[in-house]
Amino acid sequence: MKPLYKYFPLFIALLVAAIVSTGVYGGFVVRSLFYDRITTGLENTAEMLRSLLLRDTQVDIDAFCKASGTEYTRVTIIDARGVVLGDSLAPPAEMGNHGTRPEVLEAFLGKIGSEIRYSDTLGRNMVYLALPSFEYNGNTIVLRTATAFSSLNEKLRGAYVQITLAGSVILVLLSALGFMFIRRTNDALHIIQNAVREYAKGNLAYRPKVYRPQALKQVADTISSLAGDLLAR
Q1: How far lies 182's CA from each of 4, 186, 223, in Å?
Q2: Cβ proximity of 206 and 193 under 8 Å
């Protein structure tokens, strides 16, 4: 009987594949959760700013955006022609037409638009969220908030490190348990094999001692009992 140890590399390979696939799926889930959390925060900020803006129809839109923006949140207001009326981080006159931006198009269709995209103005990836368009002082406008994608990446990086560490610990523990199981099973099969050989030679007094696994212990006890019955006849 060939030893079961030769199957251990296959067991490890399957185990690694299972853990990696689970980790990848977990990474996608975590990314989705973090993205939802960030867009929810951007949406709440945008809703608050829209309420403030609607209280005063005479406000200077660019000044409003620059006063409302923070180190982490960019605020932009765009009209129906795609012209930027105000932005918290850049002069509107230096910004191109925003009418074709995916999140802006969604907003003018009456939906909440969100997008992860590279910003030509800032030179980095941003997470954008635009509220559905609304009327302000006789114009249809869109209020958009955004934050640096790097903030999402930082959160994801920490989560991925934890997933990797957890997967590594699980791999080591399951590998150790798998090796112990294979070793015990292989030893038990070897003892049962020796018992069968002894019985074939007529040594019915031989008693195999198998303690685990339980299933093989039952097999060893059964053939030992049968040998005992034959010896008693």
Answers
A1: 6, 6, 22
A2: no
